[in-house]
Amino acid sequence: MENAKEVFDGLIQTVVSEALLADAIEQYAEIEIADPNEREEFVEAYSDEAYQPVVRKAVLDVVVAVAAADRLVEDVAFRMVVGMLEPEESNDVIRAMKLVMLDKITEDALSDMEDLAGIKFKGRMDYFRACIG
Prior knowledge:
Layout: H1 4-11, H2 18-32, H3 36-46, H4 52-71, H5 75-85, H6 92-111, H7 115-132
Helix pairs in contact: 1-5, 2-3, 2-4, 2-6, 4-5, 4-6, 4-7, 5-7, 6-7
């Protein structure tokens, strides 16, 4: 069996850039907030340093899950990595932000995959989505 802990330990070291954080916040706002003024206020508020650790963890959860889904052969190992992330989210905004990021990354990744690999990847992303809550 693959060493899920080893894969997790390597992936969790991923550095989440400021640009990726900004993209996650802006993508969520663009999709979920219709009013331009509210959207701007949201982006400004969640870009503040106070929210950075929460947003960074949300982005890292998605990045690690996607990378693990691609890297690991066994579903059981993938589920172990997801479990180590503790991805369930109680904050509605952060949960929605994770789901928006997950949808975008999944869509982009599936466009580059062959049918069988895409089916397996989509199944893993559906599992991760369910774990987010």
